[in-house]
User: Fold this.
Amino acid sequence: MNNLENLRQHNPLVICYTNDVVKNFTANGLLSLGASPAMSEAPEEAHEMLTAAKALLINIGTLTKEREKDILEIAKTANQVGTPIIFDPVAVGASQYRKDFCANFLKEIKVAVIKGNASEILTLVNSDTKMKGTDSDQNLDSVAIANEAQKHFKTTIILTGKDDVIVQKGRIFKLSNGSSLLAKITGAGCLLGAVVASFVDSEHPSIDALIEAVSLYNIAAEKAEESVQNRGPGSFAVELLNALYKVSFEAYEQYSNIEEV
Assistant:
């Protein structure tokens, strides 16, 4: 059984401590794909929720001083019970506050996957990097940055962009599916982090499962773009949910554009 079929058969619980802007879209995206989302943010229930969960997504998009303690406490609980963490350092290069939090988080917490765009991943390695909000510098060398980050943090890196890059233990894959309309809707990258979490089943996830997760998401985006024709981002957001519901492993086998580099 492939990973997508396994997901749809077992409907894994994915805990999402994510940002306020994307909660509804993220939940609907996971439901469309076949996972079971829970937007749980209470440390008081973390042990029970995480014991039952397949993975935990931590997304810092709307980070506040009040939320820092909760994020760290929930993540430490995940480490204690062995629930893998996918960490999305949204806009980490936009402020010193975000840089400091992420540096501290990655010192204290063991994560299974770090997922971000080129500027975000570079900032984690080089704190002098500056970002304009969540935007990424398209001129950066994604493969080199992802490889450096993997060596630095000793964990799997998923770097997103026009081409996505996945690095794990010296193996580097470039994935070239996707749609330019993903950059025109709020929460597309955040939803991808949750989709990745739904495919992760241990603190040392299979790179094949991660490749499948990212490729399926981007193939769904391609199908959504075909469906909307010229109607624009609003229609695309709806069609992306429909495409995630319909996407198949056969489509992955037929349309995935994967290169080991």
Observations:
- The chain has a mean pLDDT of 94.
